[in-house]
Design brief:
Distance between the termini: 31 Å
Order of helices and strands: HHH
Shape: globular
Radius of gyration: 13 Å
Structural class: mainly alpha
Number of strands: 0
Length: about 60
């Protein structure tokens, strides 16, 4: 797990760094992201995407 946390941490500390974590549900992706963000002193935001979600909604979420 520490290897994954350090990888995520390296990615998110780069300017514009982002990652898409893929894996089965319950494998700890969200926990690893939260821990890496905490280590980097970042705030975690989660989007709730629905069938009505539009580009404008994304822009509004990013502004807030």
């Amino acid at each position: 797990a520490m290897l994954h946390i350090t990888r995520i941490n390296q990615i998110i500390q780069n300017p514009g760094g982002n990652a898409m974590l893929i894996g089965v549900g319950g494998s700890g992706k969200q926990s690893l992201c939260h821990l890496a963000a905490f280590i980097s002193d970042y705030e975690v935001k989660q989007l709730v995407v629905t069938s009505n979600f539009k580009v404008e909604d994304l822009k509004e979420e990013l502004r807030s």
